[in-house]
Amino acid sequence: MQPDLSVKIGRLELKNPVMPASGCFGYGEEYEQFYDLGRLGAIVVKGTTAEARPGNPAPRVAETPAGLLNAIGLQNPGTEEARLKIRRLARYGVPVIVNVAGHNTAEYCSVVEALSAETAVAAFEINVSCPNVAEGGLSFGTDPRTVFRLAGELRKLTEKTLIVKLTPNVTDITEIARAAAEAGADALSLINTLLGMAIDTRSRRPLLANLTGGLSGPAVKPVAVRMVWQVAGCVDLPVIGMGGICCANDALEFMLAGASAVAVGTANFSNPLVCPEIIDGLAVYCREQGFSAVRELVGLARRPAAHKAGGTGGCGRK
Amino acid sequence: MQPDLSVKIGRLELKNPVMPASGCFGYGEEYEQFYDLGRLGAIVVKGTTAEARPGNPAPRVAETPAGLLNAIGLQNPGTEEARLKIRRLARYGVPVIVNVAGHNTAEYCSVVEALSAETAVAAFEINVSCPNVAEGGLSFGTDPRTVFRLAGELRKLTEKTLIVKLTPNVTDITEIARAAAEAGADALSLINTLLGMAIDTRSRRPLLANLTGGLSGPAVKPVAVRMVWQVAGCVDLPVIGMGGICCANDALEFMLAGASAVAVGTANFSNPLVCPEIIDGLAVYCREQGFSAVRELVGLARRPAAHKAGGTGGCGRK
Amino acid sequence: MTQLQRLSVRSHEQVAPGVFLLCLSGGLTALPGQFVMVSVLPDSVPLSLRERPGEGFEPATALPACDPLLRRPLSVHDCRPGELVLLYRVAGRGTVLLAGRKPGDSVDVLGPLGQGFPLSASRQAILVAGGIGVAPLFYLARTLLEAGREVLFLFGAGEQAGLYRRRELALSGAEVRLATDDGSAGFHGPVTGLLREALGRNQGAVFACGPEPMLQAVAELCRAAERECIVSLEARMACGVGACLGCVVPVRRHGLAVYRRTCTEGPVFRAEEVYSCNPTCP
Amino acid sequence: MTQLQRLSVRSHEQVAPGVFLLCLSGGLTALPGQFVMVSVLPDSVPLSLRERPGEGFEPATALPACDPLLRRPLSVHDCRPGELVLLYRVAGRGTVLLAGRKPGDSVDVLGPLGQGFPLSASRQAILVAGGIGVAPLFYLARTLLEAGREVLFLFGAGEQAGLYRRRELALSGAEVRLATDDGSAGFHGPVTGLLREALGRNQGAVFACGPEPMLQAVAELCRAAERECIVSLEARMACGVGACLGCVVPVRRHGLAVYRRTCTEGPVFRAEEVYSCNPTCP
Ligand SMILES: Cc1cc2nc3c(=O)[nH]c(=O)nc-3n(C[C@H](O)[C@H](O)[C@H](O)COP(=O)(O)OP(=O)(O)OC[C@H]3O[C@@H](n4cnc5c(N)ncnc54)[C@H](O)[C@@H]3O)c2cc1C
Ligand SMILES: Cc1cc2nc3c(=O)[nH]c(=O)nc-3n(C[C@H](O)[C@H](O)[C@H](O)COP(=O)(O)OP(=O)(O)OC[C@H]3O[C@@H](n4cnc5c(N)ncnc54)[C@H](O)[C@@H]3O)c2cc1C
Ligand SMILES: Cc1cc2nc3c(=O)[nH]c(=O)nc-3n(C[C@H](O)[C@H](O)[C@H](O)COP(=O)(O)O)c2cc1C
Ligand SMILES: Cc1cc2nc3c(=O)[nH]c(=O)nc-3n(C[C@H](O)[C@H](O)[C@H](O)COP(=O)(O)O)c2cc1C
Ligand code: FES
Ligand code: FES
After folding, report:
1. Ligand 5: distance of its center to the CA of A267 in Å?
2. Does residue D236 line the site of ligand 2, with CB under 6 A?
3. C interface mutation test: which of A199, A307, A317, A318 has the most C CBs within 10 A?
4. Closest ligand 2 atom, CA of D73?
5. How many domains does chain B have?
6. Distance, in angstroms, between C269 CA and closest chain A CA?
7. Tens digit of pLDDT per residue, chain A (318 long)?
8. Which contiguous run of DSSP H or E holds residue A109?
9. Quick count: other Cβ atoms within 10 Å of Cβ A27?
10. Domain with residues C235-282, CATH architecture
């Protein structure tokens, strides 16, 4: 029997819980050649701002141990060109989630307003990691009051599913999560990248032209799983988990910690087939472990008695 | 010509900038069999509390991509037994730094007071990542006022070099760094571990009995280098950099970012000889790149014009 | 004395599905029950700056690979002058990588580590292995037999294929009794089903290694029979040398529950110390 | 069409200290100037769940290795039906690992990627290579020669040992002129020292690949001589397919400075577009 992989994110129904993460999949064009994008649970497009943005100077990426630093700087074609690219994606019959970015509240609002009536758009994911120009460049996402205000403004502008994407660069992520929930977000996604830096010991300069960048990839997975665990435990909203997912097993870690769906970013770069492979792997896991629906797994690790099979692998005496 | 590897941390003179990180080297006993500990720049011992602590239940460690999660829970023999172990280390003629932990201010004070007159102790490193019982279990190190008060109390109790060890689990590490500096710390060390979690998809339970643990190892290096860069740029105190250092090249990244010395933790586990190898590697680098003293490297990456040799490795057009 | 060495792969064969016998040449002298920490990283990766000069790589770039980060603990399966033998089951990423090592490749080994089995003066001994738990008991059996002891080796597994190295065991001179859960070889049932009878006819101490439930059952039978019982435990390890305190197990000593390091005070413990203790007691 | 394939190592030899020629067998058809993204992880590591069933590994444990995380971009050095050849210099962790691959091992290759060299109708062409920059120009030379063009190949390096594959180049029928910084072979000085004279006697477009300062000097000479100049660039890449926007280079198009992706719109660019542009202009 084929396990049921469908999940719900607010009112959004996904046929499976796997989607590419924003900024790691462009507008889908590049990965069409590798597989039928119609297999995905959803497609999250590149962070979109009101007007086109050129992005940061190069070098923009640097490899780190099991990780990637990037400082793309929100290069994107602006809302109107993004609209065309999003419409093009409609052919796959998969919900398209628009990642929204801005340097001030007005810019976020303008993107959401412009695309709110667009039928090709299923949901908005609000990237609150952007530097907040009004507050001296600290990211919107580090202050619960700012997140509350921003999410509240956007909530008024759209009936569509509103997802707030949290930054991990904070002391207490639950505080921010609660602020987003109280402002009316339908779901939360996490984590965005951790702020990092790498230095080239030959040139003795930072490897990125922007000096610092965002860390993603397997290296950050334990931090991401911990934050999903914390947020899923304190807020009654569906969570989309991400950060270092490379295989079905990683996706399962997030779902067991409490994520209803997962996003896969950096892993697309090393393995363009990673998303469909994870979808297949989740089905294999459900079958082998006796689950008829993948949503039964959500948050299972939170319940001490939920051992269905297995054991501790002979390790650890409990 | 042999390059000069000596560095200063406040009034503390180290013959080279390399020391094992607290909790990763016990009290030195285990690594004596591999090399002469007298080669080290300093020795930082296990986090020490007033009374002996049993630590957390097992499993206490879990491997993650290029990283390690640990939840040892401050198992240590208490101040008086630690004193004997520290005296034993005096034979190596290397400064011994005592890492101090506690659940409340009184406990930190009692450890520092008890060991302040101990000649075998060269400095105290204050681990402010411990849960603060008085403040509901959030770590001391996440609130600048608490750090200011704690460091201020300890400053009154000792003339010895006082190092405050910062936690990376904060929104703005420079705020905490400034608080420690204002309270009279002689130096700062960073980073302690990032809070993380891993879940076993077979047992569907967290891999650590403690649920969450501290992430260390190469995975965290970009976050650590970024924080050293930020702190060295905002506070006029020597910084001891750590987080994922595995080889001389990694140590150099931290020094170029602004660290005056480095500590090596997790890497000792995979390579017991890592500390002397890094010391040798720093000397090789200085010779090859034409530096007569390693301290010339401190913060070099902060100065755009400081390219002495090399280039960008053919990559990046600047 | 504990050393860090690069040993060379002499032979490496799959003795059962997913189970490998790795023979390394090199001078490491270990006692039965001791273990080593093996680096699973491919040896083409330079481990440090030290190894680079003259190889044509640029100094600042040929960095250590760091995933998987930790060494893997493996028991000494056999040890003779100039040869170290390991028997391991592919369990995850690390052992998958190790399984790729070919004759002539080198393997970075830290050891010997931990306490060996205490060898009492008794003329007889009962060894109880479950599956891959045979790994350290094989060397113990050979050592005891060479010292002229009588060895009764009880060996259980899920199915016949899990009774690794049973032929070599039998050839060594031990009296081998098999048990399988599916009845495909020997006694149909758990290996503890053989132990009751064995305790009747062999007066030696019991040495056991295998899955946790098996160890508990063995310990319980020995306690009831007032027989000395020694178990070899597993624990997740980071350093393997006693520095990280990651591998502790709660044991009862002089009536007090304390944590002991599996890598240093273990992996061999007296069963009564381990199984009289609630895992979270200290 | 871009594909993800596992190709098998046919041969792998060190042609100069730290420089390797890797011949892979398999069906990938690329144009001169295109490149591939190569996974440097040892092939003993299962890349995904998909590959595991039936291999005896447990499903949830044999996870992908993830360090080094990214594929490495390498130019197509030569390409014939059923064969793909790469020429690379060991530069860091990734290429060290790749250098460990032995005949019979497999290598995971994504490609072909990027735009090839534009082949104008001109009867002649000047190719200018600096060191490892010979990698893509070798295939270009062969292709041009087979199409009956006249190829003047200017090849510079620090010393003679850096003139990789110069004999094979000469055998291919190109007119090869060498230059070394230390005078150990050919002209004593930079390869651009040969270009001025070459521009006089060969009317074809100039195709260049090599270190950044060399490319700038070549571009400058061509601009002065009003000769068409095509350069192949390097940039740090994450995805190689155009999705991450990590590999951009600022170029001037229709008077406007814009970022273009080296992996998709490049790696081959018109020199005047690249070198008329301040790196941070957009
Ligand atoms: C003292 C000792 C002796 C051992 N002797 C043998 C032996 O001779 N043959 C054999 O097949 N196995 C033995 N084991 C178990 C062996 O160490 C694990 O199977 C192995 O570490 C799994 O590594 P992996 O990367 O394949 O699995 P993963 O699950 O990917 O490993 C992830 C992490 O968990 C640790 N880990 C996973 N399972 C275990 C386990 N059962 N025990 C301890 N750590 C574990 C790994 O070392 C690694 O750090 C022994 C364990 C100990 C503690
Ligand atoms: C389109 C293209 C074609 C190339 N063709 C060849 C070729 O045919 N032969 C050859 O020897 N080299 C070629 N290079 C350079 C080659 O990609 C790098 O030398 C290689 O990636 C270094 O990897 P590493 O792990 O050994 O070095 P590390 O320095 O450890 O690499 C760290 C990271 O930086 C990247 N990186 C480092 N140096 C470069 C560089 N010069 N260019 C791009 N990325 C870099 C790596 O890909 C990796 O992501 C090409 C580069 C590009 C962009
Ligand atoms: C190259 C790159 C570009 C990214 N761009 C965006 C973006 O535009 N908006 C956003 O919210 N997140 C962006 N991210 C963050 C990812 O969506 C994701 O949150 C993060 O990378 C963690 O997931 P991963 O480890 O699977 O990559 C980007 C990440 C990368 C690597
Ligand atoms: C097993 C283990 C135990 C640790 N114990 C302590 C401790 O007692 N006190 C402390 O301040 N830091 C402790 N740390 C943190 C390290 O000192 C260091 O800050 C951190 O691990 C980052 O460095 P690394 O990546 O080189 O390990 C411990 C780390 C590990 C891995
Ligand atoms: S593994 Fe580190 S103390 Fe045992
Ligand atoms: S490498 Fe990703 S866009 Fe070019």
Report:
1. 33
2. yes
3. A317
4. 17
5. 1
6. 14
7. 799 999 999 999 999 999 999 999 999 999 999 999 999 999 999 999 999 999 999 999 999 999 999 999 999 999 999 999 999 999 999 999 999 999 999 999 999 999 999 999 999 999 998 877 777 777 899 999 999 999 999 999 999 999 999 999 999 999 999 999 999 999 999 999 999 999 999 999 999 999 999 999 999 999 999 999 999 999 999 999 999 999 999 999 999 999 999 999 999 999 999 999 999 999 999 999 999 999 999 999 998 754 443 333 333 333
8. helix A105-115
9. 20
10. Ribbon (2.10)
Residue D60 in tokens: 């949830």
Ordered by start, the domain boundaries in chain C are: 3-47+65-113, 117-232, 235-282
Identify the CA nearest to C271 among candidates C236, C225, C233: C233
Contact B114, B151 (CB under 8 A): no
Residue B312: inside a domain = no
Which is the closest atom of ligand 3 to the Cα of A267?
26
Distance from C-alpha of A87 to C-alpha of A81, rounded to nearest angstrom: 10
Asked whether the beta carbons of residue B315 and residue D249 sit closer than 8 angstroms, the reply is: no
Whichever domain contains A189, its CATH number is 3.20.20.70
In chain D, which residues have their Cβ closer than 8 Å to the Cβ of B66?
Answer: 66-67
- For residue B183, which of B133, B128, B260 has the smallest C-alpha distance? B128
CA distance A66 to chain C (A): 7
Angle between helices A173-182 and A221-234 (to 10 degrees): 50
Number of cross-chain residue pairs from B and C with Cβ atoms under 8 Å apart = 136
Residue of the CA atom closest to atom 25 of ligand 2: D94
- Model pTM score: 0.95
Q: What is the pLDDT of residues B92-144, one digit of tens each?
A: 999 999 999 999 999 999 999 999 999 999 999 999 988 777 776 778 999 99
Instruction: Say how far apart CA A146 and CA A152 lie, in whole Å.
Output: 10
Cβ count near D68 (within 10 Å): 26
The ligand with the least distance to the CA atom of C77 is 1
Mutation for testing the B interface, residue in C43, C49, C261, C262 having most B CBs under 10 Å: C49
Decide if A316 is inside a domain.
no
Classify domain C3-47+65-113 at the CATH topology level: Elongation Factor Tu (Ef-tu); domain 3 (2.40.30)
Chain D partners within 8 Å of A284 (Cβ): 49, 53, 59
Q: What is the spatial distance between Cα D153 and Cα D163, in angstroms, rounded to a whole number?
A: 12
Q: Which CATH number fits domain C117-232: 3.40.50.1370, 3.90.1280.10, 3.40.50.80, 3.40.50.300?
A: 3.40.50.80
Chain B residues inside the 8 Å CB shell of C258: 54
Domain that holds residue B119: 7-306
